[in-house]
Fold each of these.
Amino acid sequence: MTRLICVASGKGGVGKTTVASNLGAALNEFGVSTLLVDGNLTTPHLGFHLGVPLYPKTLHDVLRGDATIDEAIYVHPSGLKVIPGGISISDLKSTKPDKLAEIFLELLGTHDFVILDGAAGLGREPLSGLEATDEVLVVTNPDLPSVTDALKVIKLSEEFGSHILGVVLNRVTGKLHELTVDDVESLLGYPVISTIPEEPKIHESIASKTPLVMLAPETKAAIEMKVLAAKLAGIEWTPPKPKEAGLLARLFGFLRK
Ligand SMILES: Nc1ncnc2c1ncn2[C@@H]1O[C@H](COP(=O)(O)OP(=O)(O)O)[C@@H](O)[C@H]1O
Ligand SMILES: [Mg+2]
């Protein structure tokens, strides 16, 4: 059975593409066949996160009927499969997201997981992503603007009859001004199934076009994303302990107490 999952948020910049690419990489490492699809038709970024070279065929070509789905699948060196979006201005102007649902129907039976990196906002583009998939993973940051927009996505997903898998709380620092897990759960009415800390190496991972779970698997953020992947796929995985801070950092941490 193929699971069609949309990674959605409402507000942009909360970490959808980061979560989608790492989730895909983690599932692939677990041996689960996974296809990532860039649902950001106006501003596709997934290809950049995964080092997809300028690809001859993209989702835009498939949507226009100029390529088959198979022609637009790029295989990452790790084995993870990706359908990137087209980044040219003509792609931007000529694309209609309505056909996304048809494409996803065709993908049924091809992989264990097909994960759509959803578009931000609540317009036609993100809505067509919700329509094309059956399950939704809601990503938010621990602040009111992102949680408010996450609530809108949740309400729309409920209207589409999608199953909401839960909330991924991303970029958590634990500072006092942040909303807590309890706050987010009571505001959204769904459980927080993953808490991902702020991780400076994520910027390095995007720059080096390598998902964090591959670049720095010892970081807490990478471990959390692998735990999430294992949870979604029903795999038992015992996470390693996140790497300890160096001796100097621990000494200073102790002195600061
Ligand atoms: N856990 C994290 N720690 C630090 N930076 C993060 C984290 N998650 C995402 N980011 C950064 O936030 C920015 C937006 O992330 P992105 O995945 O592109 O969001 P979206 O797809 O929702 O627009 C990127 O610069 C990314 O490096
Ligand atoms: Mg994105």
Amino acid sequence: MTNKIKNLFNRISNKYDFMNNIISFGLHNFIKREAIKSLKIEPGSKVLDLCCGTGDLGRIIKKIQPTCDVIGVDFSSEMLKIARRKNPNITYWELDATSLPFEKNSFNYIVMGFGLRNIPEKNKTLGEIYRILKNNGEFLHLDFGEQNHLSFLYDNLILFLSRLFLKNTKEYKYLVISKNRFLKPSELIELFKFNRFEYIKHKNMFWNMISFQIMRKP
Ligand SMILES: C[S@@+](CC[C@H](N)C(=O)[O-])C[C@H]1O[C@@H](n2cnc3c(N)ncnc32)[C@H](O)[C@@H]1O
């Protein structure tokens, strides 16, 4: 399963940013900025962008707080090639989020956009996030939110657009299935609490179709 997902992201890496713009009508940058702004990152913080893909969240963090030390982690070498090209001021490591070589209490903030959904071993990953966060450190999780009538229409639009622009829907069928199988935002918050995190806040956007949650390591 893990290799299948890694191969999928390696395969779509060249089209990833282009398709994100298409399927979100350019709104993914706005959504990511809103989520990062909510964290109120302190200058000089050490931040991990986990499952960083092509590096959008890290880039936004560097823009808002240039003095932060940002590290990006992903297990797809092809996604990382693009991230490195786009963000020469960020250090990238090719690693699996379920087993991270960082010391405990290393980061002030950990951000994760559209990543946890792809990881079968969620508790193991959250255990790693908890371990390497500093006390009072914050974890931002961003992904699709609730399923509703609108998200059902959106799923069909994603498949239509991927057929139109990629002539292939396989990878984007996976996106739709994984997003619909994923936990609801309220269930995610329970999962985070089960993994010892303290709830700070969450925000639902675009008719609940997008959601982010901010949790703290006490
Ligand atoms: C949908 S992309 C999100 C990328 C980026 N965070 C964004 O918001 O655009 C998911 C990323 O998670 C990575 N990923 C999935 N499972 C992973 C794992 N177990 N360890 C590290 N990275 C993983 C994939 O390679 C992919 O780049």
